[in-house]
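User: Some background: our group keeps a shared notebook of sequences we're curious about, and every so often someone picks one and asks for a predicted structure to add to the entry. Today it's my turn. The entry only has the sequence so far, pasted here. Could you supply the structure so I can complete it?
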Amino acid sequence: MRSGAPGARLERVSWLAEHIDVGRPRWKQLVLDDGALPWTGVALGLALLWVLLFLVEVQTPNWLYWSGKTVQGSNQGGIVFYRVHGQTYTIDDPGPAPTHPTPETVWYQAGDPSAALLDEPARLIEAGVFVALAGATVITFGVGATRGELHRRRRPALPPLQRRSART
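Assistant: Of course. Here's the predicted structure to add to the notebook entry:
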């Protein structure tokens, strides 16, 4: 096809797009390349799982551990007494009643101090799951981007673009 013909530019642009990553942003080259695609899929799956767990956590009473405030209370006979802004509140301790007063950490809602939870080791497990899942997502995405870059660099070199003469 002659260079002056209407389809010549389109043919040349399609050849470039096929052999060279023209018009593709750098992040797309790293994330959607052949070597990175499986890793990117796993990272997106982990991110989706993290978001779903977060949405479930927001709807549970344990969300108070993330959004509430803490105050020291005193466990006396299975009832924990705590004070917020000069007002005394109580919460039942489901564990065994101590024989003498013991300190307890109470998490309460800032707008409603009567809505409270006692500090539990389970909140550390929940926090660990959230942090580990977020870390796994970031690491998996990073490995995928690195593999995509290595895969891109290892591609065989393409022949130079052939210029067509105006006479043909």
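Suggested note for the entry: The beta strands are 69-76, 79-84, 87-92, 102-108, 116-118. The mean pLDDT is 77.
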